[in-house]
Amino acid sequence: MLSKLLRKAAPTPPLPFAVEDGTRIYAVGDIHGRADLLAEMIDRIRVDMDRCSAHRLVTVFLGDYVDRGPDSRLVVDMLLALSQGGNAICLKGNHEAILVRFLREPILWENWVALGGLQTLLSYGLRVPARLSREDQVRVAEEFRQALPAEHLYFLESLPLTHVSGNVAFVHAGLRPTVPLDRQQEEDLLWIRQPFLDHRDPFSHFVVHGHTPVESPEVHANRINIDTGAFATGRLSCIALQGNSHTFL
After folding, report:
1. Does residue 195 have a cis bond before it (omega within 30 degrees)?
2. Beta-strand pair 23-28/56-61
3. pLDDT score for 11
């Protein structure tokens, strides 16, 4: 499935963005249960932080922490520790959204399984077959709710949809073209591909996003995509933005 989603990167002219003065922002792409890659990236970010001159250092995680990879529970633990330390902002991805919905609507079982939900359940100690009756779907949803630590559930339910610095909007999937940021629908912010990906004109903000796997970070004049399919490729990407410049770690 990943090969069908991969999109080729395209060269672009200088980018029209600037984050807030005195701020350096690290944005990290979709993790999908790869705690090993997250640990390595956290170390890289800390090394870079020690070398930079910005007064304010912020790390923004772009969502999709769970599913597909083997260590969703550990990823959530790590992100909780970072966010409680006050130097990390964790955004909601479509995978967090469907996980939380499944707890309320077990009928979504097949949708969640198709997105890698079995791997998340296994990381929380639940070994479940892919095919379940409606009755068993309700039972598994309740078992999963019991297995989730309270702080994990609160974390997953409380994730913000966007973060803005200067004229840069950080979001999981993208924006609906021509719609102001404050009028965007959650469905688009978490799930959109088209028409966002093919839009060539400016959005209301310059966009840094994930959600659509690419072979390497994809840079356009109006957006940057840093989802490099970590769960399958072993490549977790991070971009650092300061002023109107950017670099990849």
Report:
1. yes
2. parallel
3. 47
The helix (run of H) or strand (run of E) holding residue 242 is: strand 238-242
Separation CA 169–CA 167 (nearest Å)? 7
Q: What is the chain's Cα-based Rg? A: 18
**Tens-place pLDDT, residues 152-205:** 999 999 999 999 999 999 999 999 999 999 999 999 999 999 999 999 999 999
Which residue shows structure tokens 């967090």?
A: 96
pLDDT value of residue 12: 44
Cβ neighbours of residue 142 closer than 8 Å, sequence gap 6 or more = none
**Domains parsed from the chain with CATH numbers:** 33-93+159-248 (3.60.21.10)
- Angle, vertex CA 161, rays to CA 42 and CA 178, nearest 5: 120
Structure-token pair, residue 189? 């912010």
Comparing C-alpha atoms, which of 57, 21, 28, 67 is closest to residue 208? 28
Other Cβ atoms closer than 10 A to 192: 23
> What DSSP string describes 14-50?
S----PPTTEEEEEE---TT-HHHHHHHHHHHHHHHH
pTM of structure: 0.92
With a cut of 70, which residues of the chain have pLDDT below it? 1-14
Token pair belonging to 64: 């999709």
The total of other beta-carbon atoms located within 10 Å of residue 118's CB is 18
Residue type, 225: N
Tokens linked to 153: 């559930």
User: What per-residue confidence (pLDDT) applies to 14?
Assistant: 57
